[in-house]
Write a structure and sequence with these properties.
Strand order of the largest sheet: 3-2-6-7-8-5-4
Shape: globular
Number of helices: 4
Oligomer: single chain
Largest sheet: 7 strands, antiparallel
Number of strands: 9
Radius of gyration: 17 Å
């Protein structure tokens, strides 16, 4: 019988790099029932502070979940189906941005890569207020993931 390769754990550095290369992942929050609530989210990763940031609106169910129970996880696929990273930690939800250009609005703007920044920054900041945008900041205390070294 042929021995198949076993999954290989990724180093903390490789996991952080994978988080930095991706833009989307699956955020898991905890429902009142204890079951996971999963949603695909765009995110921003700061490897120095080990903080993940997400933009969402104040009325989303994930915001309610996190305000009740801050435990969260983000699953990110690697470059193929054989690798992944998971970041776990506790999340804090900011207050809504209420004045164009306030601290929350500036933080939301700062999450956008330079190449994707809006041309009309003032209009964008006003839109964030209208949408009642918040920042979810997840302080990552555990990273794990694997890769399976096979072709195909």
């Amino acid at each position: 019988m042929t021995q198949r390769p076993a999954p290989r754990p990724l180093s903390d550095e490789a996991l952080s790099s994978l988080l930095g290369r991706q833009q989307f992942g699956t955020l898991a929050t905890v429902k009142r029932s204890g079951h996971p609530h999963l949603t695909t989210m765009a995110y921003s990763w700061d490897p120095e502070t080990r903080v993940l940031r997400f933009s969402t609106t104040a009325d989303r169910i994930k915001v309610q979940h996190l305000r009740r129970d801050p435990h969260a996880a983000l699953h990110v696929s690697g470059g193929d189906v054989w690798s992944f990273a998971v970041a776990e930690g506790e999340a804090v939800v900011s207050e809504s941005t209420t004045v164009p250009g306030d601290a929350v609005g500036r933080e939301l703007l700062g999450m956008i890569p330079e190449a994707g920044r809006p041309e009309d920054e003032a209009a964008f900041l006003e839109e964030l207020v209208t949408e009642r945008r918040v920042v979810i900041r997840m302080n990552v205390d555990r990273l794990y993931g694997t890769v399976l070294d096979i072709d195909g």
